[in-house]
Amino acid sequence: MQKHNHHIYCRIAGHIVIILGLVIPLLRTTILIENHRLQVPDLQKFADLRTRFATLWNVGFQVIYALVSLVIDIYTVKGKEQNIPAALRSYRYTFFAGIIYPVAMGVLIFWPVYIYDRELVYKTTLEVAIAQHINYIVHGLVFVYANYELAFLPRELPKRDNVSWNHLVVFNVIYMAVVFYTRYVDIGVWVYDVLTATIGTIMFPIILFSLWGLSTMGYYLQWTLKELVWWLRDSVKVRSLENKYTS
């Protein structure tokens, strides 16, 4: 077995943690929702809308990305990366840059609204099935993982290009279409109570397009953070060499 940079083992550990950290708690939560939804109207509404929440879309993206990346990294460690299609290995980085990092940052909009009035995004009545700590997992741990993965990806990857940017644009367009479809065609309500509460105020368009805005900021932020990480690593190496030759 060939020797690999320790970064790949760090990535493998991160993939495993995020998969277990998302799948196990959410499976339990799903069971609790099904057990209580008929007795709790707010939970019934949540259950009807859950497939339209950006947070759960992001969870799906993260689990898929982590699973695929875990397989690729394990095959790479075993020296069998040629068994994974080159297109898939390359697309992994495009998906990270265009979806994983920016959308993980986008769903952080939950926290300012939660701090202002939690009932607008997480009603107290939902706690019977959705524990408080689930919010930290789906609106916090996902962003921690995205930054962790960013820190250990190869220096030259992912690349900043139009393909990854187009992924983010397509995601935001599709998601906004779902939000408007839910309100005006399908169920007849806004996906989030905070939108209903802010209709007629300047906050309505701000909240409505907050996911788009934050995810766009996240897209550009990742390149700056990546450069910072590698600059710090280079600085540490230089200092280590200087200490070695002066000692």
UniProtKB/TrEMBL annotation:
The chain crosses the membrane at residues 12-33, 53-72, 93-114, 134-153, 165-184, 190-214. The keyword Transmembrane applies. Keywords: Membrane, Transmembrane, Transmembrane helix. It is a multi-pass membrane protein. InterPro entries: ADTRP_AIG1. It comes from the Eukaryota. It is found in: Endomembrane system. Its main location: membrane. It catalyses: 13-(9Z-hexadecenoyloxy)-octadecanoate + H2O = 13-hydroxy-octadecanoate + (9Z)-hexadecenoate + H(+); 13-(9Z-octadecenoyloxy)-octadecanoate + H2O = 13-hydroxy-octadecanoate + (9Z)-octadecenoate + H(+); 12-(9Z-hexadecenoyloxy)-octadecanoate + H2O = 12-hydroxyoctadecanoate + (9Z)-hexadecenoate + H(+); 12-hexadecanoyloxy-octadecanoate + H2O = 12-hydroxyoctadecanoate + hexadecanoate + H(+). PANTHER family: ANDROGEN-INDUCED PROTEIN 1-RELATED, AT02829P-RELATED. Belongs to the AIG1 family. This is Androgen-dependent TFPI-regulating protein.
